[in-house]
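Good day; I would like, with your permission, to put a structural problem before you. I would ask you to consider whether the tokens describe a fold that such a sequence might reasonably adopt. The full record is reproduced below for your convenience:
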Amino acid sequence: MDRRFLFEYPARVRLVGVHFKPWGISPFVDMPAAELRDRWAPVDAVWRSSVDRIRNRVGDTASAAETLRVVEDELRSRLADTPPRGLELVRHTGVRLETSHGAIPVGALTEAAGVSGNHLAAQFKAHVGVTPKRVARIYRFARLIVSVDALRPVDWSRLAHTAGYFDQAHLGREFKDFTGFTPTDYLALRRRFPVERGHPPDGGPMPAE
């Protein structure tokens, strides 16, 4: 869901990136976000000639900080003068989904915004690439993942309830959809291939409440 643009310069083995909020890329591109969903897209395909301009300004000796300033200048030059239609609605609704970890029903969001469910879904597809319901599912599942402590026994039933799933079977379906694994298989992989020390999932449980 999140968008990341990466700029690589092999001569210095330097990698600089931009990490957008789910709705953050919309003011910078001239295409619906749905066209970028679930695929890697070269920066040139989204921002024509941007990479060449950045490389020409950066050269081979610039520091990472200097490179970031050049990328920021490029972003500023592409920022729309006025926010795209519907973006403020998506941003406001998206922030509520983010802060609630996807717990707010989409119906409540549409009612509060005074729009129909179809209208909100269409705006999310244009600016985020997926529906608000999908965004809510992603935030809810992300919250659950970071609450798992792979170093200790996991009570999946309790986690499912705390994260707002109907039951453990519902949690299992979400796991398969987002990871391709069952909760048990996922936990086994986490224990077999732990991530770097201090990374949130293996640095101890983050609160699920």
Notes: The radius of gyration is 20 Å. The CA atoms of residues 16 and 53 lie 15 Å apart.
